[in-house]
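Entry:
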Amino acid sequence: MKISNLFMVYAVLAGVTSLFMLFGPTFWLFMHGAAADPLAVLLLRFIGALFGGLAVMSWAARRVEPSAVRDAMALGLSVASALNAVVAVLFATSNLFSGAIWVSVVVFAIFAIAFLSARRLTDSGSVVPTGHATAS
């Protein structure tokens, strides 16, 4: 998959996730078999806000030319997705949540691998833009 399409798909899914977490946290918790206590709702809304920011950054990145910045975004999203996959596995194996948590495991793992692969395929290899002097 082209990295521009990957950024777009991630942006859409992160945006939808953000909206569900911000405006329907109790449903999100119910869907995963968790209690909707006030702290869980608050934390889920914070996470939803973060997903909203990632969605906007990913949407903007879909049209960015190959660069060290785009590579850094892809690496960051790969690491974030991998860490989320690990956390989701821990929750899935704890029996605290319903089996729906395995969907999160799969989605996060796919994005971790996809962004890492796309970054390697399109790695610009540049750290300092050409024509710019470095401080000595």
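The chain has a mean pLDDT of 87.
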